[in-house]
Design goal:
The protein folds into two domains: 22-162, Cyclin A, domain 1 (Orthogonal Bundle), CATH 1.10.472; 185-269, Collagenase (Catalytic Domain), CATH 3.40.390. The strands form two sheets. Strands 1-2-6-5 form a four-stranded mixed sheet. The protein has a two-stranded antiparallel ribbon with strand order 3-4. The chain is α/β, with parallel strands linked by helices. The protein is built from ten helices and six strands. The radius of gyration is 20 Å and the shape is globular.
């Protein structure tokens, strides 16, 4: 009986290790499978960033899209019928955040809820002893350890227009990267332990600068809401306005370049 108790942790560790190995093998098989030609047409039509990517990154993206779609489920609301175009267009934008990094495929959730366009959300806030109801219009949101919710109209528009700094899919999946270490606080898991100090210094300085900024900025003002929104908004800017971000906020650009292990400025060379 004692030997069973002693060996139980080892058996559990072995099962956990084996499941990880099998999962990695399954992902590799899906990643390497031929990419459906119709899916490629959707990407070429709806993802403005795709032709800017170097060929090696294009091939990476196609593999990541296949794994992502094998692991995530899409659900339509308000009469929206989920099609391959919707699935592939969303997946391709989300998987841009997986390029050149150890792919995690956004663990901890599996559902993506799609609305035809912007949608209404009922909210309640406390004002003294009163509970006050209000309504807000949203393009997307990410629930911690829960689904990602997106407007299809705005997801497609954000993919097609790759230079306006507005991409709701990239924004919401940046939140999913942020939560991979448990907290959604603007500090995602960094691959290099030496980056934590510079990340805190640079992002803290730039966040407070944005809060004080009056007038126009290359970084959308919504990023001044809190550190987690700052991370998501700067991620949009990093991929869609890299030259402007590098010119106006060079240290910030370098931190995101180091985090994502990508240099979007070089894609236009």
């Amino acid at each position: 009986m004692l030997w069973i108790i002693l060996l139980a942790p080892l058996a559990l560790a072995l099962v956990f290790w084996l499941s990880k190995v099998l999962k990695a093998q399954r992902r590799q098989q899906i990643f390497s499978a031929p990419f459906p030609p119709q899916w490629l047409e959707y990407i070429q039509r709806n993802i403005g960033l795709y032709p800017r990517l170097p060929e090696a990154l294009q091939q990476q993206l196609l593999g990541h899209v296949q794994v992502f779609l094998a692991e995530k489920c899409f659900y339509g609301f308000e009469g929206l019928q989920i099609t391959d175009e919707i699935r592939v267009t969303v997946a391709a934008q989300a998987c841009i955040l997986q390029l050149n990094r150890p792919a995690t495929y956004f663990p901890g959730f599996s559902s993506i809820y799609m609305y035809p366009a912007s949608y209404k959300v009922q909210e309640r806030s406390i004002a003294g002893d009163l509970s006050v109801g209000s309504e807000s219009i949203r393009l997307g949101e990410s629930w911690q350890r829960g689904p990602v919710i997106l407007s299809w109209r705005d997801s497609k528009q954000g993919g097609v227009n790759e230079e306006d700094g507005q991409n709701v899919v990239i924004h919401e999946f940046a939140h999913k990267l942020d939560e991979e270490n448990g907290a959604v606080d603007g500090l995602p898991p960094l691959s290099e332990s030496t980056q934590y100090k510079s990340w805190a210094e640079v992002l803290g300085k730039e966040f407070h600068k944005l809060q004080r900024t009056e007038g126009r900025s290359v970084i959308d003002r919504y990023g001044a809401t809190n550190p987690q929104e700052f991370f998501a908004v700067v991620t949009e800017t990093f991929f869609e306005k890299p030259e402007q971000l590098q010119e106006k906020h060079a240290e910030l650009y370098d931190e995101f370049k180091r985090f994502y292990q990508l240099d979007p400025v070089s894609w236009d060379d």
